[in-house]
Description:
The chain is α+β, with helices and mostly antiparallel strands. It contains 6 helices and 3 strands. The longest helix is centred in the last third of the chain and has 22 residues, at 94-115. This is HTH marR-type domain-containing protein. Residues 3-135 form the HTH marR-type domain. Keywords: DNA-binding, Transcription, Transcription regulation.
Amino acid sequence: MTSGSALLALQRATHATLLVLASELADLGLTAAEINVLAILADGPGRTVSEICAESGSRPSTITSVLDRLERRGHITRGTRPADRRVVVVELTPSGRRAAGTITRTLTSVEARALDGLPGEAVAGFHTVLRALAEVSP
Length: 138
């Protein structure tokens, strides 16, 4: 890979973004993985562990430990679906909803600051590249 590599640029951008988010969300005392899971759950409906794994791009073992920590902190609950008791559904608690709201507002603010002034076509192209990279199979 060269210095002009999209993957290296994405890695640098991810690192810089995580540093900004860690700084702006420091009061929550959450890891990047915990922030990611709460952001996924922020829209309200519960998700299965499989859905969280798919949305986060993480392995079930990683997500399970993140969920354990979030549950201990009182941010989530895990339950079952009446139609299928084998399926674990993760939902936000009131404190989880407050934290997720803070995370969502911060993500929106950071993104707006980063993309301010860019043409819509550039942002759309960026999203196209991100989808393509996310779909690369191992």
